[in-house]
Specification:
433 residues, 19 strands, seven-stranded mixed sheet, single chain, Dna Ligase, domain 1, globular
Length: 433
């Protein structure tokens, strides 16, 4: 990363950038950026190797065959349909690196077993018998047709690269064979994390059930949030991480070989939930069969352990409470930090103010009284927008101070905010007279 970021203990940072701490206030008892962006590495039958690729929701709905090798309604894309219910943009990375299917006339554009479903049909053109119609099929779907005099005129399409030195002869169907998915290693996950580090997203999903891989994601999240200053939350399966940046999905699914498949949906709602909303009591509207065979005592114990859980309410499966895995409360970091709605507010402030400072003030505005007043005005305006949409409450402009730091180049901001949370518990006393 080019700029510094993260938290600070003393004003001793070297890199220019934004260093922001969030702490709980002491108690007696001891313009806002958009959301809806997720990132996730996947094991795929089709797709580009060694690169992060972006898919917007409209592209997923209209061009999933070209992007993922399957139509939007195919069972293979069930998890991605769950994810895209609540996001606008996904950044994906194909973990497995296999081999490309091929035949004498063409080679699949991407490696993977889906390439074995490709077929090339060559026939003599009915209007000009000196030319050939070369049709590419994926399964039974025609995905490309070209009319040429020889193979040298063939152009690559979204699915194959043609052998332009081949000799064209009519054939009822020339299948591509030899495509494999390949194995996935820990290095593949690390490659993904290395590449995704430079992207901006709200939630990161890890579908692995391997403890070492999950821990890799947890440590990456801690480093990015606390040292680099990039604020997002990571969704994992059954990992008591005890950290506000990690959401621990506890329930498994009953109808998929990967019990962690709920990570798709939870990553989606985490990325897409507005800063002034909560996912508590949200109805699961995905396609998996959720295992909700949990007793009341299991639910209570799970909440105390920082587990994101689903339970049955009538005919619906609902989110029990929108919490993360943080449970080690202290006077400096209290129970509020276990609320994902609170973390969304804090992350919004952290990301927005860092972007504001790094783009408008860093190296551009003098660190004098006028410059500090300008920064103060921008921070106050930002917080007033948060209050307007009821993400925070009781904010007053005097809650923000911008003062000179220990050096001529540094400024110190003191900021007091009260995140608002959705109602979750009702205590009611009815007096009968």
């Amino acid at each position: 990363m080019a700029l510094g970021g993260g938290t600070f203990l003393t004003q001793n940072k070297v890199l220019p950038g934004s260093y922001i701490n969030f702490v709980s206030a002491s108690r007696a008892t001891a313009t806002l950026s958009e959301r809806g962006i997720a990132a996730m590495p996947l094991i795929l039958d089709w797709g580009p190797d060694n690169e992060v690729f972006r898919v917007d929701v409209a592209d997923f709905q209209k061009e999933s065959l070209k992007i993922f090798g399957y139509s939007y309604t195919d069972p293979k894309l069930k998890g991605l349909r769950d994810l895209f219910k609540n996001i606008t943009t996904g950044y994906f990375y194909k973990l497995n690196k296999g081999t490309k299917a091929s035949c004498t006339l063409a080679t699949a554009k991407y490696a993977g077993v889906r390439g074995n479903d490709l077929k090339i049909v060559v026939s003599t053109n009915v209007d000009d018998n000196t030319k050939f119609d070369v049709v590419t099929y994926l399964g039974t779907t025609e995905v490309d047709t070209q009319t040429v005099s020889s193979a040298s005129e063939l152009k690559p399409n979204d699915f194959v690269v043609f052998n332009t030195s081949a000799t064209l002869t009519p054939t009822a169907g020339m299948p591509l064979t030899g495509g494999t998915n390949g194995e996935v290693t820990g290095e593949d996950y690390q490659d993904f994390l290395d590449k995704i580090e430079s992207y901006t997203f709200n939630a990161l999903g890890c579908l692995s059930t391997e403890p070492t891989i999950i821990d890799l994601f947890v440590q990456f999240t801690k480093r990015m949030r606390d040292q680099v200053g990039v604020k997002f939350q990571t969704v994992v399966y059954r990992k008591d991480a005890d950290y506000e940046g990690v959401i621990n999905v506890y329930n498994d699914v009953l109808d998929d070989e990967n019990p962690a498949s709920l990570v798709y949906w939870v990553t989606g709602i985490t990325a897409g939930c507005p800063v002034n909303k909560s996912n508590t009591n949200r109805t699961y509207d995905g396609e998996y069969q959720v295992n909700v065979n949990l007793k009341q005592s299991d639910l209570e114990a799970g909440l105390k352990a920082g587990r994101f859980m689903f339970h049955k309410v009538g005919d619906d499966v609902r989110v029990l409470e929108d919490i993360n895995s943080f449970v080690s409360y202290t006077d400096e970091k209290g129970e509020d930090f276990s609320s994902n709605q609170t973390i969304r507010v804090l992350d919004q402030i952290g990301n927005d103010i860092a972007t504001l400072f790094n783009t408008k003030y860093l190296g551009k505005v003098q660190n004098d009284n006028a410059g500090r007043i300008s920064l103060w005005n921008d921070i106050v305006k930002h917080h007033q927008e948060l209050q307007k949409i009821r993400a925070i409450e009781n904010f007053k402009p005097e809650d923000v101070t911008v003062l000179p730091g220990d050096t001529k180049k540094s400024v110190v901001v003191q900021d007091k905010i009260t995140p608002a949370n959705a109602m979750a518990q009702l205590y009611m006393t009815v007096i009968v007279q």
